[in-house]
Amino acid sequence: MKNTMIPDKIVVAVDTIILTIGQSGLEVLLVLLKNKPYEKLWALPGSVVGVSESLDEAALRVVKNRVGEGKLHLEQMYCFGEIDRDIRGRSVSVAYFALLSGRGKIVSKLSDNYLDINWFSVNNLPPMAFDHKNIIKVAREKLAYKLDEVKIIKT
To answer: 20 near 103, Cβ under 8 Å?
Structure first.
């Protein structure tokens, strides 16, 4: 009998929800994927966590590779581990949100994995890969809660 508790392989990744206030209000930075099975779908910038780096280091690396070293707030948000979140295999993603003080310039060079990178309104997202639309939804809810918490503290 096969033990279903021990998978063949689990990938640990970080996904970054890079947010700023832009022309259309709250905007998120997305990358257009190049390779199948998610070809021509948009996704959050992310990466598999390196063997010799922490989750925080991996998330900071992803953000710096996309938007540089400007002023930002980076915070671990939530862990996403639905069994079917990636059709290529079992993966767990630790999501971080990064709040930029200004939209700034995208410093990312397109890699072998990306066709494009651009800002989108969180209210008007393009077709997305993985469970990233849901990750953005959770990020919006958590950010709204944090802003309400700040209002309560200041009053």
So the answer is: yes
- C-beta of residue 15 within 8 angstroms of C-beta of residue 78: no
Q: How confident is the model at residue 29 (pLDDT cuts 50, 70, 90)?
A: very high
The three-class DSSP label of residue 8 is: coil
User: Could you tell me how far CA 101 lies from the centroid of its own chain?
Assistant: 18
Round to whole Å and give the CA distance between 1 and 152. 55
> Are the CB atoms for 122 and 142 separated by under 8 Å?
no
pLDDT at residue 105, as a whole number: 63
Q: What is the CA radius of gyration of the chain?
A: 16
What span, in angstroms and rounded, lies between the C-alpha atoms of 35 and 43?
Answer: 12
The model carries a pTM of 0.86
Nearest CA to 95 out of 45, 129, 39 is that of 45
Mean pLDDT, the chain, integer: 86
Half-sphere exposure of 81 (CA within 13 A, CB side): 7
- Between CA 116 and CA 101 the distance in angstroms is 23
Q: Helix, strand, or coil here: 12?
A: strand
Cα–Cα separations (whole angstroms), residue 81 to 14, 84, 88, 127, 142: 12, 8, 14, 21, 18
